[in-house]
Automatic annotation (TrEMBL):
Single Gene Ontology BP annotation: regulation of DNA-templated transcription
Alphabetic keyword roster: DNA-binding, Phosphoprotein, Two-component regulatory system
UniProt xrefs under CDD domains: REC_OmpR (cd17574), trans_reg_C (cd00383)
DNA-binding residues: 126-223
Domain OmpR/PhoB-type: 126-223
Annotated Response regulatory domain residues: 3-117
InterPro entries attached to this UniProt entry: CheY-like_superfamily, OmpR/PhoB-type_DNA-bd, Sig_transdc_resp-reg_C-effctor, Sig_transdc_resp-reg_receiver, WalR-like, WH-like_DNA-bd_sf
Name recorded for this polypeptide: Response regulator
Example of a GO MF term: phosphorelay response regulator activity
Record PTM 4-aspartylphosphate, positions in chain: 52
SUPFAM superfamilies the record matches: C-terminal effector domain of the bipartite response regulators, CheY-like
A GO CC term assigned to this protein in UniProt: protein-DNA complex
Length: 224
């Protein structure tokens, strides 16, 4: 899952865009102004920055300039209603990787984000994960074992991927819920237990694979 730092002072627009990006598999941290953007950039190290230009306190051009003082690699995409050539040139000189003009369609923004990630070397290439005799394809959300193929839901595939990436380490319950269900007011810890039970069932053909419930803390995937 790729982390997007999304900087937009118009809250209603930001809510729509954030929900749409999360529905397409991105993790979004939204902030309202440039000062917050610099704070979050330093703290969370996002994979990409999607940045409005016209904002109070600190405009997007200034934010990009400050980011590029310490970070030359994280892609930056400007969202802007400015269409003058000099504005576009200024943005690219400050280190922007791309521009998306407002108003825009979410499909266009997603294509631009994926292209920027690919060019930066972070693209969607790492999509297959192996645990025991199973292979997880996180692009198609397929779990294969020999000739057997199971279609997973997006959240099942992402949760299993995180467990595999954290193999032999405890993956905290709070982190799982915050990452994948932060916008779902109906989701509970009991619901997470149900998801874990499903994943255990999917993996049951390989008895070496264990997902252990560390009571009150989280879950750990291990391979005997």
């Amino acid at each position: 899952m790729y982390n997007i730092l999304y900087v937009e002072d118009e809250e209603s627009l930001a809510m729509i865009v954030s929900d749409s990006l999360e529905a397409h598999g991105f993790m979004v941290r939204h902030v309202l102004n440039g000062q917050q953007a610099l704070l979050f950039h330093g703290k969370y190290k996002p994979d990409i920055v999607v940045l409005d230009v016209m904002m109070p306190l600190m405009d997007g051009f200034t934010v990009a300039k400050e980011i590029r003082k310490t970070d030359l690699h994280t892609p930056i995409i400007f969202l802007t209603a400015l269409t003058q050539t000099e504005d576009l040139v200024k943005g690219f000189k400050l280190g922007a990787n791309d521009y998306v003009r407002k108003p825009f369609k979410i499909e266009e923004l997603i294509v631009r984000i994926e292209a920027a990630l690919k060019k930066s070397g972070q693209g969607m290439s790492e999509s297959k994960f192996v645990v025991g005799n199973f292979t997880l394809d996180t692009v198609k959300n397929l779990l294969s074992h020999g000739d057997s193929i199971e279609k997973l839901s997006y959240r099942e595939a992402e949760l299993l991927k995180r467990l595999i990436e954290s193999k032999d380490k405890v993956l905290p319950r709070d982190e799982i819920i915050r990452t994948y269900w932060s916008n779902d007011t109906y989701f509970t810890g009991r619901s997470l237990d149900v998801f874990i039970s499903r994943i255990r069932k999917y993996l049951s053909a390989d008895e070496r694979i264990k997902i252990t419930n560390i009571r009150g803390v989280g879950y750990m995937l291990s391979l005997d």
